[in-house]
Specification:
275 residues; mainly beta; Alpha-Beta Plaits; globular; CRISPR-associated protein Cas5
């Protein structure tokens, strides 16, 4: 398996809304969810190709999906170790109705209707590191083209790609390490890894369509072709934010230095296992 490490520079506070949740209490994940990262990178690919970024719409309108093709598995983005990151809670005006999507739009038009006071969380991070993995090196070089491109990221926020690594070869092994990403909670339970020091979140992954085969390297990435996704499937994840001296023993793909990606996460996001 092969990996790209992508450094992301946020330009402001961000919100990645935790769902399900109260309409009056907007809570955020302290990381960029995999599906959010996938859509962000896909939009940057469309920008590089000189295409207009599609606007967001409420789900009732059945909008098309624009994400990375299934062969590129986006694993989320996380605060770089040793840098500043925190969740800040405050109050602000926000939407009054569930179908009010002004805050999620990429292109803002000044719509200020139906506002009310919310408790709102912001994720503040000095720098993020993201991971994209693939079974093949073919096409991974296209991500280098996204350096210095930026776009809206999440419900609130904006970020720029500052660096994309060379292609990194990963090796599969079972070891006791802290994962570089989130890890499916079911994986910890099935392996009797009842460890402390992790936070638990509900998340969502793509439900990939059965007919999702793309041939060309740039197809479904550097074009405006819709991604064949049928919807979302919920799952529960663990996120380790600190070293408690008791890392979980799991099956990883790793560079044997700093990158430790749970195999179960890759399989889950690809739709190859169900937990």
């Amino acid at each position: 398996m092969y990996c790209l490490q992508i450094n992301i520079q946020p330009t402001a506070a961000m919100t990645f809304r935790i769902l399900p949740g109260s309409i009056l209490n907007i809570a955020t994940y302290p990381f960029v969810p995999p599906t959010t990262l996938s859509g962000f990178l896909r939009r940057l690919g469309m920008m590089y190709a000189g295409l207009e970024i599609p606007e967001t719409r409420v789900n009732n309108d059945k909008p098309p999906f624009y994400a990375l093709p299934q062969r590129y598995c986006a694993l989320g983005a996380y605060p770089v170790k040793g840098t500043l990151s925190a969740v800040h809670r405050t109050y602000r005006k926000g939407m009054r109705e569930f179908n009010h999507d002004a805050f999620s739009r990429i292109y803002q038009d000044g719509d200020k209707a139906n506002f009310q006071l919310h408790t709102w969380e912001y994720f503040i991070a000095q720098e993020l590191v993201a991971y994209v993995v693939s079974d093949s090196t073919h096409g991974l070089e296209n991500f280098q083209k996204l350096v210095d491109y930026g776009c809206k990221l999440g419900k609130e926020g904006f970020a720029i790609i500052s660096q994309v690594s060379e292609i990194i070869e990963l090796h599969q092994e079972t070891s006791a390490k802290y994962p570089s990403t989130i890890v499916p909670m079911e994986t910890l339970l099935q392996n009797n890894q009842f460890v402390s020091g992790c936070d638990i979140y509900n998340l969502y992954r793509y439900k990939w369509s059965a007919n999702n085969n793309l041939r060309a390297e740039e197809e479904g990435f550097l074009d405006n072709q819709e991604t064949k996704v049928e919807g979302f499937i919920p799952f529960v994840t663990a996120y380790f934010t600190k070293d408690t001296g008791n890392p979980p023993t799991l099956e990883y793909v790793t560079d044997r230095e700093e990158i430790n990606i749970p195999v179960s996460l890759v399989n889950l996001l690809r739709g190859e296992i169900y937990v």
